[in-house]
């Protein structure tokens, strides 16, 4: 929700605080969305090589910093850097969070819940950003959102570390068997099979 809270007021930050033109803000947003596509491609290329904990923990921390930078931007450089960076990182972290949820629940219920939570953040984010910016200003809003992300990053990283921890190796107990104690004559054992139709009950067959 933090990213969508910033996204809902990013236009006003660029126009009123960073003193950019509408065309410049539009170009920054376009480049940011393009960076998001690159982020998804990068997450797919990396796959599980880095595990889940590092992309989720470090990625969420970087997004928090990007939000604080973008919300306090007073010029094109800081505004563009913050917006483009968090747009590139957000789909990477979300991909690994969904992957973590899927690994924790093979039935896929947690992965669906992650998608639902993301949709809820998309809906409630702009309202949250507008209220915070109206009450405390853009820089304070960025700090609040960044702090919230850092708080959430701790338990998510802990869960990811626990989920990727290798299972303990079980010791195999070997029981030695003396080959001399096994019967050498296997002809002493009969062959299991259906009773012959012509054999009388209780009689033995050759």
Overall structural domain count: 1
Report the count of strand segments.
0
CATH superfamily: MFS general substrate transporter like domains
Sheet-strand content, in percent, reads under 5%
Structure, briefly:
With 206 residues, the protein is mostly helical. The protein contains 6 helices and no strands.
Task: Sum up the structure in keywords.
mainly alpha
Molecular structure report:
The chain is mainly alpha-helical. The chain has one domain: Growth Hormone, Chain: A (Up-down Bundle). 69% of the residues lie in helices and 0% in strands. It has helices at residues 2-17, 22-46, 53-71, 76-104, 109-136, 138-163. Helix 3 (53-71) runs antiparallel to helix 4 (76-104), helix 3 packs antiparallel against helix 6 (138-163) and helix 5 (109-136) packs antiparallel against helix 6. The longest helix has 29 residues, at 76-104.
Give the topology, please.
Blueprint (H helix, E strand, L loop, with lengths): L1 H16 L4 H25 L6 H19 L4 H29 L4 H28 L1 H26 L43
